[in-house]
Amino acid sequence: MRIARFTTGDDPRFAAVGEDQDGQTVLAVLEGDPLYKPIQLTGEKIALDEVRLLAPVLPRSKVVGVGRNYVEHASELGHDVPEEPLLFLVPNTAVIGPDDPIILPPQSEEVHHEAELAVIIGRIAKDVPPERVPDVVLGYTCANDVTARDLQRRDHQWARAKGFDSSCPIGPWVETELDTSDLAVRCTVNGDERQSGRTAQMVFDVPTLVSYISSAFTLLPGDVILTGTPAGVGPIEAGDHVVVSVQGIGVLANQVVTGE
């Protein structure tokens, strides 16, 4: 199932994403919350072009990032591949949804795109063995781990560089059934391909990452895990149209604007 979070101008609601008999995308509205309450179809259906899609989850706790999880990406930045997953935290205030603007932070002059597969946690998870990871995952979505590269170098840690408001676009929806072992991950900027990799190139796969992270701290429903980015990261500027796609999920598009 694909689960979207949307609004028509009122409170956010959830829907199952499908197609009508003409092949047009429609949302079958759900009652409940897939993270906290049982869900069921209400019978109401809305065309996709009549709604505004929101970030498919709004994390109440945290976003956990994984650095240097693709060998070629680590190499392009002049870093070694870590022996264990390299973790960092992103505040939930950084999360935005499809078509929301990426606002360039005024403190930075070098902001990069980073296309990624994101994991959405569906249950409280602590010390989860790799073979049990599917039991605690709600699903998967696309993400852009937008990074102020100059702040990252200057600060010698990643809080400002990866945690500024609007630095974590996710969407367009959550795909609940997906084999993540070998998916295409791409990024285009203004139609030009910048990144093209596959999750099979990850140093640490999804079960390993979720297990490792849950051994460090408790994961809560709605937590987002960013699984790392393939090679090809590069600068984005005001006016750019950035599109991240992950095979089997869909497309996440955002416009870049200048911060004040």
Automatic annotation (TrEMBL):
Coiled coil: none annotated. GO terms for molecular function: acetylpyruvate hydrolase activity; isomerase activity; metal ion binding. It comes from the Bacteria. Residues 1-56 form the Rv2993c-like N-terminal domain. Pfam families: FAA_hydrolase, Rv2993c-like_N. Residues 62-257 form the Fumarylacetoacetase-like C-terminal domain. InterPro entries: Fumarylacetoacetase-like_C (IPR011234), Fumarylacetoacetase_C_sf (IPR036663), Rv2993c-like_N (IPR018833). GO terms for biological process: carboxylic acid metabolic process. Keywords: Isomerase, Metal-binding. This is 2-hydroxyhepta-2,4-diene-1,7-dioate isomerase. It comes from Phytoactinopolyspora halophila.
